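in:
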């Protein structure tokens, strides 16, 4: 039986889509993987490009645009996946103004899924530490993630959708610290989700070529 969950203050649906965008290196449009993020009412909040883009010498692995793909607004967040370690850098702000981007590192601190990050939240911008963990007692299905704070209080749950469904996830937020906190939850959740999927794919590729299948089992 699922554990008791408080009433969500916000709910978002994450839908996997194919995005068509201009290729900077080629004078043509190309398809790429993307997510659409909408409120439970259906209102489109963000469009997320999953294909890496380059900003001068820096690679951004996930890029969050305000609004729907059909009418994208400014970039509001991005992530960078560290290669040597399985940490993720979370950036909030517009890539057009690199000096204004606020970065926070989300660290994988255990062999199991355990992503820790500290961000300033609320009107007073006080730093708070949060952890994404696996959960089977909250959310829908058995591949969920939960976000807790320093006191192990439930903050949000990310329920991953089934492989046969275009609706690939749902995020329920139970505490809102104000400011852009809900965006922090969305960005960090999708960063963890993509990190896990890419580790799984790398492990499968390694196993197929004779490598160790356990390469992506943890963070």
């Amino acid at each position: 039986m699922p554990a008791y969950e408080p009433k969500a203050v916000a709910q978002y649906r994450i839908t996997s889509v194919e995005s068509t965008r201009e290729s900077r290196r080629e004078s043509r449009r190309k398809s790429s993987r993307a997510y659409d993020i909408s409120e439970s009412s259906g209102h489109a909040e963000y469009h997320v490009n999953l294909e890496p883009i380059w900003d001068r010498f820096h690679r951004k692995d996930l890029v969050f645009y305000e609004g729907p793909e059909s009418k994208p607004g400014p970039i509001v967040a991005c992530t960078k996946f560290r290669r040597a370690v399985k940490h993720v850098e979370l950036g909030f702000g517009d890539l057009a103004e690199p000096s204004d981007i606020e970065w926070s590192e989300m660290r994988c601190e255990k062999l199991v899924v355990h992503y820790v990050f500290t961000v300033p939240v609320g009107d007073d911008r006080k730093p708070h530490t949060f952890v994404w963990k696996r959960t089977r007692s909250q959310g829908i299905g058995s591949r969920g993630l939960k976000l807790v704070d320093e006191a192990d209080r439930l903050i949000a749950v990310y329920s991953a959708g089934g492989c046969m469904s275009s609706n690939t996830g749902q995020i329920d937020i139970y505490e809102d610290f104000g400011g852009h906190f809900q965006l922090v939850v969305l960005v960090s959740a999708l960063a963890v989700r993509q990190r896990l999927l890419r580790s799984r794919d790398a492990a499968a590729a390694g196993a197929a070529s004779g490598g160790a299948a356990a390469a992506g089992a943890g963070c």
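note: DSSP finds one helix and 14 strands in the chain.
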